[in-house]
Amino acid sequence: MSEVELLNVSKLYGNKQPYIIKNLDVNIESGEFFVIVGPSGCGKSTLLRMIAGLENISEGVLRIGGEMANHWSPSQRDISMVFQNYALYPHLNVRENIVFGLRVKKISPEEREKRLLEACEMLNLTAYLNRKPRELSGGQRQRVALARAIVSQSPICLMDEPLSNLDAKLRAHMRGEIRKIQRQFGTTMIYVTHDQVEAMTMGDRMMILNQGKIQQIGRPIDIYNHPANTFVASFIGSPQMNMCEAYYDGNSQEIRINKDLKLTMTLPKLKTSTYIIGLRPEYIHIPQPNNPNQTIVQVEINHVELLGNDTLFSFQINDQQWIAKWNGQWLFEPGDKISIALDADELCVFDKDTRQLVHSSTRQDHDELQKGVLA
Amino acid sequence: MAMENPTTTGQVPSLNMPYRTFWEKTRRFQVALLFLLPSLILFSVFVFYPLFRTIYLSFFLTNQKGLPTVFVGFDNFIQLFQSADFLQSVKATFLFILYTVPASVVISLFLALLANEKLKGIHFFRTIFASSLGVSVAAASVTWLFIFNPTMGVLNRIISLFGIQEINWLADPHWALLAVSMTTIWLNLGFSFLIIFGGLQNIDQSLYESSSIDGAGYFYQLRRITIPMLSPTLFFIMTVSLINAFQTFGQIDLLTGGGPGQTTNLMVYAIYKDAFVNFNFGKASAEVVILFLLILIVTLLQFKFVEKKVHYQ
Amino acid sequence: MMAIKRGSLYVVLILIALLLFFPIIYAFLVSFMSTKEVLMGHLIPKSFSLTNYIDAFQALPLLHSLINSMLVSIITTIGQIIVCSLAAYAFVFIEFRGRQFLFFLFVSTMMIPWEASIIPNFVTVQKLGWINHYAALTIPFFATAFGTFLLRQHFKTIPKELHEASRMAGLGHLSFFLKVVMPVSKTSLVTLGIYCFLTTWNSYLWPLLVTTDERSRTAQIGLRQLHAQENVTQWGVVMAGVVIVAIPTLLVLFLGQKHLQKGLMDGAVK
């Protein structure tokens, strides 16, 4: 059953200004962890706030639990929300902050206490119940905000960049924590972030938004492998996907990147024309002897980053800087000329004008391999 | 449900809600109005209505009860501008502003700079510097009245130590306005100091640190950092002092009663006498209108000329 | 070098502090002097006898006027906090059509000095029958543009997410105002309170106009009468009156100076 349904939803301020959100259609399933991701200003927070009831819906229909909810007040929607800055009441201690909403809803003191203790135990907050928010660390405040969402026992929880004020280590920890809690309660989670790592690792599905329009909705891994357009391709993945224009010749079945670099490739559906090709940094390989799928090319390195476990280096392809990611430590210097291997099968091909995906490999979907590893 | 089976074929279901009544649409306005109502009522009764009423009265002759009797057009104003007494009170007011406003601001700035030094016990000095804010016009005036007392007052005792002849401060036309100004400056210092000092404390310390690394000295920092950063505060305190100076009443009432020879008959005091001693509301209203326009013009001029030079962060 | 600089700074500070505080010290010292001592022009009284204070209380219903001042100041302070915080709330937390206009209207009242409206206001108060009543001394000052601005500046620092979180919890405007905004803004309410108390306690012209009988006079007017009565001879008694009238506000100022300084700055300049 779809818990939250958006039909043709648009948002604009005033009457003639540009749309913040335009004709958005999406169904969010019950118990799903749904991530909305996009660059800043893409309308993702506005969308979340429309679902919460904090912003009006200019056009379209919002349904919650199957019922039209456009004009329900925020509290009628039975939704909990975690804000980026946590929105803790500075004058109340942790205990009062957590049960604030329950008091408003006139839930009995016994029940309040029960839920409070349960949530605090889960989030290790029991020792801090009498502290004020300013006496807490960033991570603790974040957990109080989570606890507040948990005790409400609302079927739907909205989170607006809840981890962006934490340091990297804590963020990684809380990603797992939030996912665990969401699974445990079966909450329908709508989670807004600009961080693609969060989007990739936490979501059952994710939606990529740009300039108020849906770019793609799907399982994170599918989006990674088959980005719907060049925006998604460059937005998801770090370092981002390498791209450049290339000419596909249908007769010779060759994709020509430049005069030295041609890849043989069969693309029966495509006509001879110029396309944009994309290749993820990890698909630029170390040349292996006797691999017929490989095309080897010499490049001149102009920048190297040693990450310890990986090495990133960049080089010029046509007018673009490409980045390659190799496992292990490679002590290259700028100016070194090295050979790299490309595999035509791993390319994504986009239409030059519409920038939509026209071809992507299915090789990366490791279903077969995975079966071999699973016990 | 109003919206069964909404189509997804690009036809946007209109949610401008034909069934939302005017009452519902303006709900937020109504709520806001409830919150604003007490203020709005009070402002209407005690600020806006009186303003228009004053302008209205200024075109009339009034009777003993202050009710308008005969419409006289601009006669009240014409008479005022022909009256030496009124022109004297305008002149005295401007002189008074000249004596008090710049001095208050400069002295307060000096005090604030001193109080901004990091020294042990500086809090005590800050409290002393602000103390005149806690003294009422009446209390201060009565105290200064005694300080100015020609025979018993301490001021004449001090100047006689230097061999200067005793001065009859409040009865001598040459000195009376200056004496009132001294009292006023002292009264102003507490508030001005507090505001300017607050402004100083708000300046980001790292500006000083970084300029010290560049080798800037105290006075260079004062000129290039402190004063520019403080300019919004100085502008504010200048405007406030100016408006306050226009409205001076208590000092005059207690110290000189407008004398000697009208030299300290500032505008508000003149208005008070015309309105509530002579009960000539028409004339007094005309004076009020002129006072109001003067304040308006001076503040606007100040905004126009000074604000350009003010550095806002 | 540092020691010399510091030492000279202290000398300057002490000299200036003495100079500035002198009128207050002087009033205090004279309040203990006999008429004879005053006439001789002494600086230090021979003994700290309280006769002048007793005389001051006997010469006038000074105690009564002190109580009047206290009550008037407290009522005005509470009233102003309530009225101004309600208005400030609307400007910060409710988005409504006409907000800009109403805000401008509030700004414009700053440009209208109280003196400009004093004649009709006197008539209004007379018609309302408020002469010699606390109402005349308090109610007209409940709404002030300054107070509204000061609080608005502080309310604006409350994250809007706090409002949104309470909306999601089901709080209406009034409960959000009472349960969150007011407690969170305690410090700025105190600032406004101190400022309002000081200005009300010290106000002079308006109380002079709207109180005519002795029992409803405020302390400032009491002081005026004391001075008028005792003008020539009893300076010690008059100064005792000055000290009595100044003590409450000086105390409030000393206790609340930090609050006042921070709060006034925020309201004024930001």
Automatic annotation (TrEMBL), chain A:
The keyword Signal does not apply. Residues 4-236 form the ABC transporter domain. Keywords: ATP-binding, Cell membrane, Membrane, Nucleotide-binding, Translocase, Transport. One of its GO terms (molecular function) is ATP binding. NCBIfam families: PRK11650.1 (NF008653). This is ABC transporter ATP-binding protein. It comes from Terrilactibacillus laevilacticus. The lineage of its organism: Bacteria, Bacillati, Bacillota, Bacilli, Bacillales.
TrEMBL record, chain C:
It is a multi-pass membrane protein. The chain crosses the membrane at residues 7-29, 70-94, 101-119, 131-151, 176-201, 235-255. Its main location: membrane. Keywords: Cell membrane, Membrane, Transmembrane, Transmembrane helix, Transport. Coiled coil: none annotated. It is found in: Cell membrane. The keyword Secreted does not apply. Pfam families: BPD_transp_1. Residues 66-256 form the ABC transmembrane type-1 domain. InterPro entries: MetI-like, MetI-like_sf. Belongs to the binding-protein-dependent transport system permease family. This is Carbohydrate ABC transporter permease. It comes from Terrilactibacillus laevilacticus.
